[in-house]
Design goal:
Layout (H helix, E strand, L loop, with lengths): L1 E5 L6 E5 L7 E2 L7 E6 L5 E6 L6 E6 L6 E5 L2 E5 L5 E7 L5 E7 L7 E2 L11 E5 L5 E5 L4 E5 L6 E2 L8 E5 L5 E6 L6 E6 L5 E3 L7 E6 L6 E5 L6 E4 L6 E4 L5 E6 L5 E6 L6 E8 L2 E2 L4 E2 L6 E7 L5 E8 L2 E8 L6 E2 L25 H7 L1
């Protein structure tokens, strides 16, 4: 059987499907979103994540239907140990970032946190148990990490920095299968645990994600996505909605201070560039204009207070720096050049003519 989340009935609920065929069996009917199912080793129970009590928590439910029972509050990304005695999960730490923790199922309040600030940047998510129950693989910032299930130092497993996620171990413990996003193509990969060698499994033509291996390691289930993300401009006075659409994705919109246009990122020509859609009375006026045409990707634009320039971060070989480009087009200008990632620019409001930006001298010279 395969457990999965479906919104076919209008709300994200859990279902199970026999591989031999037949109709899926819907397990949950709550108005909240029930997601991320994972099996207990005995195949009789499924753990899942739901916010039905107002906050994300881990619940469990019989595999063939019944009442759901809360297992862990303030938790997500449930993973049951191979022997069925422990649960690994993610939970916000003292600074609000998710950390990996483990608790015995017979006393879920006895929580042991396994990862910290030195165990990968930002959130730690999606724990997966090794077959022997001794190691947990999890997704940190862009890479996969390994940490002893009993506690100890975490080590990095992958190094490409390509948004590696959803790890799952092979039954022999030699490989970890995962999804990754190199060069804007979400596909399935595997990595050999002994030496970190990676191998691509799918082409990424339909956004392959969330791999799950059968217990004998002979079958691989995964999800595919065929989506086209558009931008919608909403007139807050009238409620009229107008769509900025294309054959590819449009995202991260920024509205000009005077409402004369919307800047956004799109891969409609094969790579993510900045585009500007002129607006008249809040509605698109003519086709959008392409503002950037360079290697790498451009994302998350921010207008200067006078609306003449856009700052954004440019991604080249996994590294992000801040650039600026005129809304009239022309050659972009690089503002930061640093080995760490610089991203998500934001301008201070204009206070007076001498204090327009936070980093005034560098910015004004660039302008």
């Amino acid at each position: 059987m395969i457990a999965f989340t479906s919104d076919a009935a209008g709300n994200p609920d859990l279902s199970v499907q026999r591989l031999a065929g037949g109709e899926p069996l819907r397990l949950t009917h709550d108005a909240a979103a029930d997601t991320d199912p994972t099996w207990f080793p005995d195949s009789n129970t499924i753990a899942f994540v739901s916010d039905r009590d107002g906050a994300p928590a881990i619940w469990r439910i019989p595999a063939f239907g019944g009442s759901a029972v809360k297992l862990l509050p303030d938790a997500a990304d449930a993973a049951i140990s191979p022997d069925g005695t422990r649960i690994a999960f993610s939970r916000p730490g003292p600074h609000g970032l998710s950390r990996i923790a483990v608790a015995p199922l017979d006393d879920p309040s006895d929580v042991r946190v396994l990862t910290g600030d030195d165990s990968g940047l930002w959130d730690h998510m999606m724990p997966a148990w090794s077959p022997d129950g001794r190691t947990i693989c999890y997704a940190g910032h862009k890479n996969l990490w390994l940490v002893p299930a009993g506690g100890g130092e975490a080590t990095r497993l992958t190094h490409a920095g390509a948004a590696d996620r959803h790890p799952v171990w092979s039954p022999d413990g030699r490989f970890v299968f995962f999804s990754s996003l190199p060069e804007e193509s979400l596909a399935l990969w595997c990595v050999r645990v002994s030496d970190g060698a990676v191998h691509r499994l799918t082409a990424g033509t339909s956004a392959e994600d969330e791999p799950s291996l059968s217990s004998d390691g002979r079958r691989l289930a995964y999800s595919v996505t065929d989506a086209n993300q558009d931008i919608v401009v909403v007139d807050r006075m009238t409620g009229v909605r107008t769509r900025i659409a294309g054959v590819a994705d449009e995202d991260a919109p920024a509205v000009a201070p005077d409402g004369s246009g919307v800047a956004f990122s799109s891969d409609r020509l094969g790579s993510y560039d900045l585009w500007l859609q002129p607006l008249t009375d809040g509605r698109p006026d003519g086709p959008p204009r392409r503002l950037t045409d360079h290697s790498g990707s451009a994302a998350v634009a921010a207008f200067t207070p006078d609306g003449r320039w856009l700052a954004y971060h440019r991604i080249v070989n996994g590294r992000r720096d801040i650039w600026m480009v005129s809304v009239e087009g022309g050659a972009p200008r690089q503002l930061t050049d640093h080995p760490m990632n610089d991203l998500h620019p934001s301008f201070s409001p204009v206070i007076n003519s001498k204090r327009a930006f936070i980093s005034s001298s560098a910015f004004l010279r660039a302008l």
